[in-house]
Each structure stands twice: as C-alpha cells, then as structure tokens.
Design brief:
Blueprint lengths: L1 H20 L5 E3 L3 E3 L2 H4 L1 H16 L2 H6 L3 H27 L1 H6 L2 H28 L7 H11 L1 H11 L1 H29 L4 H22 L5 E3 L3 E3 L2 H4 L1 H15 L3 H10 L3 H20 L3 H8 L1 H23 L3 H8 L1 H9 L4 H5 L3 H5 L2 H26 L2
Antiparallel strand pairs: 1-2, 3-4
C-alpha cells in the first residue's frame, strides 16, 4: 500500500503538470468533454499578466529605443538602402512620368538618383530621432509581446516551463515521498479497520494533499524559515532567483523582444500608420528640397496631382523596402539594446511579490482543477487497490 500510494503521488504530479501545458489546442467535444492546457487556454490572459510585469517593472519602449544611436542606425543600413534607391527612383519616375524619364539623358538620370541617394541616410536619422522623441506613438511593446505569445502558444508554454523547470521537477519528485508517508498511514488504518472504502479515500487524500503541498512549497515561504527546529525551507522559486532571472532574460531576449520583432511591430503593428505618416512627411520634405527653386517648374511640367502622387509613391516604395533594409541592423541593435542583461538586472531588483508574478500565474489559473484532478486520479487508483486486495485475499 505505501508503494502504491507513492506511485499515486508521483503520477498525479506528472499528470497535473502536463495538464497545465498540453494540449495546445482543445481536444474532445466542446465545451466540456475534453481538455486544453491551462496556459494555452488562457493564452491572452497569461500573456497579458507576463507582459504587465515585464513592461511595468523590467523594461520600457523608451528604454529600448534610447540605446539606439540614430547616426549608427543610418550607417548600418546605408548600404542596403542606397542599393535600392536607384530602383525606387526609376520605378517612381516610370510610374508617374514615363515619357519624361525615358527622354532624359543618362547623365541627368544619374544626377537625380545620386541626389536622392545622398539624402536617404539623413531621412533615416531624422525619422529615428523623431521615433525616440515619442516612441509610444509608433510602438506598443505590450501589444507586440501579447500578440506574439497568443499566436505562438508553444512559446508561451516555454516561458513558464523554462523559468520554472526545476520547480516542476520538484513537484513531480516530491509526489512519491509524500505519497509514501500517507501510504504508511493508509496501511495502518487498513490493518486496524479492514474497511475497503479507506483505500479510495486515502487515494483521494494522497492525490489532493500532495498536489496542494507541493505547490505551496514552490512559493512559500518567501524568506528562509525554520520548521519544527529541524530543517530550513524557502520557496524553491525564490531560492534560485538568480538562476530564474538568467533563464528568463535569455528566453525573452532571444524569442520575444528581438530587433526583428520590434521592427516588425513598428512597421506592421496597430500604430504603423503613424510611422507611415512620419516617413511620408520626411520623404515629401526630401522631394521638395531636391526640387529646390525649380519646384514650381517641376510641378508645372508633371502636374500638381502627379507631383503629389510621385511623393506618395516614393513613400510607399521606401516602406516596402524597410523590413529588408532594417534587417541589417539586427546585430548592432541586439548589442545596443542589451535586453538580456537589462532583464537580469531588473529582475534581481524586484520585490518578492513582483518576482512571484513571473511564474505564479501559470499555477493560479484553474489551480483547483489540477488539484481536484490529482485527487480523482488518487481515488480511482484506490478503487483499483480494492480489487487487488480482494484478489489477494481470496
């Protein structure tokens, strides 16, 4: 009986942990006959909680972008940007004034392209400076994080599983000794009372108590505390705070707050229209400045509407090339933003309550279901014990 109780404790922990994360999508017949992992089912809420801690306590958009030097960004993307300028210029002119463009001498065409080429890095630098001045108008860090995590539930699982991998292993491993201890009591009760119903009852208690106790030992107490004058215990999650900070910082920096994701959020996120307006304004200034004193003649030659269309088309072409162009700053941006070390440092400065919010939400959501499931599995195994006992006593 003690060994069966130990098995109950261990197995129910494994099942409870897996039920937190698997399956990623609902399996069975909705709404009640089936299961979806607690974390994937509450993906939006889980991601929101994780992001609230991240953005309110650890890092802000302004902090991320303030570390980028606009001049250095312009230098990093100058080569790929310049390589595309000629194509952009030719496409725009061919679309707005094909006859005029074709009629121009090659030397004049080269002069036009060269003037645009020289001004392009300056536009990038100016736009970067304006973005840094009011980053919240073009970039929503929380929306980017939540969108990525809801879209990729496996990644959301990894955040909780990797940050708390030792805690989950502890929960599973402590099930056996806890179950063994309860199993000894079960054996004594059986020897005294010989009541078959004691077996499923103790199975239920084993599944429930070991789940509940293991979860408590992960997060409580916050500070080291001596129990019964025999041993000292501190919540495992707090005990290895520095290790959690390192693992969490690594994962966030490599998978979520990356230069690629940030650029994509700025260019394609819900605030991307504001960036487009910003780029459009600078492009229009550049086109007008290149026209110089000849602007009235240019407008007269190509027509007011075509002139405006030309400026609009330049903006569109530039925006189309930005994702590919900005990819060239990833290495520089990764080093400059230094997300990993920033998160590690800030996490070590969190209060115990704030630090707990990094992992605790994975347990809080439907925690009672997980404990109840452990209890029911223990009850079912207890029923099997009755059959075994009856078979052996025949």
């Amino acid at each position: 009986m003690p060994f069966i109780a130990a098995a109950i404790g261990y197995v129910t922990k494994l099942v409870a942990i897996e039920m937190m994360f698997k399956p990623l999508e609902f399996k069975g017949r909705k709404p009640f006959l089936g299961w979806q992992g607690v974390v994937p089912r509450r993906a939006a809420k889980m991601a929101g909680i994780a992001c609230d801690t991240m953005t309110s306590q650890l890092i802000t958009p302004a902090e991320i972008f303030s570390r980028l030097d606009p001049k250095r960004v312009a230098e990093e993307i100058e080569k790929p940007l310049v390589e595309g300028i000629e194509e952009i210029t030719r496409d725009v002119m061919a679309a707005t004034q094909p006859d005029l463009w074709e009629a121009l001498p090659s030397r004049v065409k080269e002069m036009v392209v060269d003037r645009v080429r020289r001004q392009s890095p300056r536009i990038v630098e100016t736009v970067m400076q304006q973005i840094q001045t009011d980053i919240n108008s073009v970039f929503d860090l929380k929306e980017m994080v939540v969108t990525n995590l809801v879209r990729d539930k496996a990644l959301l699982n990894r955040i909780f599983r990797e940050a708390g991998h030792k805690e989950f292993r502890f929960i599973a491993n402590c099930g056996a000794p806890f179950g063994l201890a309860i199993g000894v009591l079960q054996t004594i009760a059986w020897a005294v009372f010989r009541e078959p119903l004691l077996l499923p009852a103790f199975g239920l208690i084993t599944g429930w108590a070991t789940d509940w106790l293991a979860l408590k030992m992960v997060f409580r107490p916050v500070e080291p505390r001596r129990f019964f004058g025999v041993f000292t215990w501190q919540g495992l999650f707090f005990k290895r705070r520095n290790e959690v900070a390192r693992d969490y910082g690594d994962l966030i920096a490599k998978e979520i707050i990356t230069p690629r994701n940030v650029v994509e959020a700025v260019l394609k996120g819900p605030l991307s229209d504001r960036l487009f307006a910003l780029v459009q304004r600078e492009v229009h200034r550049m086109v007008d400045s290149q026209s110089g004193m000849a602007r009235p003649l240019v407008v007269m030659a190509v027509g007011g509407r075509r002139y405006q269309r030309m400026k609009q088309l330049v903006t569109v072409k530039v925006m189309e090339r930005l994702p590919e162009t900005m990819a060239h700053i990833e290495e520089y941006a990764t080093d400059a933003m230094d997300i990993r070390n920033t998160l590690m440092t800030k996490m070590q400065q969190l209060t115990p309550h704030q630090f707990e919010r990094l992992l605790r939400p994975a347990f809080e959501q439907d925690e009672w279901i997980l404990i109840a499931t452990g209890a029911m599995l223990g009850f079912m195994v207890g029923e099997l014990q009755i059959l075994v006992v009856e078979f052996l006593t025949r």
